[in-house]
Amino acid sequence: MSAAQNESRKRGKKRYVSGGQQGKRWKGCRELEVGMQGILITCNMNERKCTAEAFNLLNEYADQLFGPEKFQDNKGSSSSEEEEAEEDIEVALKKEVAQLKSSGGKQERRFQALESGANNVIFIKTLNLEPDKLVHHILSDLHTTKKKKSRVILRMLPVTGTCKAFQEDMLKYLTTFLEPWFKTPNSATYQIAFKARNSSHNKREEIIKSIAGLVGKLNPKNKVDLTNPELTIIVEVIKAVCCVSVARDYTLFRKYNVQEVVKEDAPKPDPAKMKSEQNAAEQKDEQNGGEAEKEEEKKKAEDEEKTDVQIREEVKKSEDGGE
Question: Where does the record place the THUMP domain (predicted)?
Fold first, then answer.
């Protein structure tokens, strides 16, 4: 084999190894980790389209709640996207390159899509905003307007805290995490929504029972309500990370499902109308019962009259036979 061929093989092998290592590094730095806040979003077989829809939806409502996203320039002063658009294109490009160089190419945005560790689930990491407040605002608007704004997104679950997905670590973390909602003097009716993905060491019944016991210790007035609770403790375990949050209107907003929440609600029964209909039915039954009673008495009278006629006819026949 010639020296040129050997050199070519070495270069090819080097490119192959380098590419494999680079891919691993990219994936490792973009995964859901303990200490993050954000939003878990479930979809149906199309994660790329789901991510695009999520960015559009989140930015639309984040602008309403928190204002347009702002960035930091080299001197530490903030400038909005609208201001950047007014600058000369060449100046803006140079400015962006300088920003990336100064930050080591790791400038963080308020929404970043990361690998969740489960199929059909994406994690949007949030920066400097309240994910629970944002998600509730989105679902509240969708529930009111009934306007469908996504095709592949199914559920949007806020993640306001994360910890290691072992029962001991979870209970230790939740002891402090749940205090603002459930520790005396605060109290509420609640339910626990637990789901584990790619994690087999956590048993659903054991986790729910342990969390319920913890909530009861924080304040005995906290009561479980599986029909219409004031608060829902969301616990989502993915691999070795446990994502938690406390959500309001979980039942009203169809378990935070953006497809279901825009559907028309089933009409609620009107108590006054139900009582009126019940009274009318009772009156009708009484009327029908009275008429039936009259018919029965009339028939009885007719039978008695018929019996009297038959008796007179039989007496008359017997008298005629005697003569």
Answer: 141-248
Pairing of strands 121-126, 223-224: unpaired
The CATH code belonging to domain 35-69+109-256 is 3.30.2300.10
Compute the distance between CA of residue 45 and CA of residue 120 in angstroms, rounded to an integer.
6
Q: How far apart are CA 205 and CA 40, in angstroms?
A: 23
**What residue segments make up the domains of the chain, in order of their start?**
35-69+109-256, 267-323
| DSSP classification of residue 31 | B
Q: What is the mean pLDDT of residues 69-92?
A: 56
Task: Name the one residue in this structure whose structure tokens are 């072992």.
Answer: 166
Phi first, then psi: what are they for 249, rounded to 5°?
55, 35
First to last CA, the chain: 152
Return the DSSP state at 163.
E
CA-derived radius of gyration, the chain: 36
Pairwise CA distance, residues 310 & 321, whole Å: 17
Q: Residue 21: its pLDDT value, please?
A: 42
pTM above 0.85, yes or no: no
- Say which residues have a Cβ less than 8 Å from residue 277's Cβ, sequence separation at least 6: none
| Chain center to CA of 266 | 19
Rounded Cα distance between 199 and 170, Å, is 14
Average pLDDT of the segment spanning 164-171:
96
Q: Which carries the bigger pLDDT value, residue 14 or residue 262?
A: 262
Take residue 207 and report the two structure tokens written for it: 């986790």
**280, amino acid identity:** A
Token reading at 147: 């306007």
Q: Where do the H-state alpha helices sit in 195-270?
A: 204-218
pLDDT value of position 30: 85
Look at residue 53 and tell me whether its pLDDT is greater than 80: yes
pLDDT tens sequence across 269-290: 666 666 677 777 666 666 665 5
Per-residue model confidence as pLDDT tens digits over 181-214: 999 999 999 999 999 999 988 899 999 999 999 9
At 244, give phi and psi (nearest 5°).
-135, 155
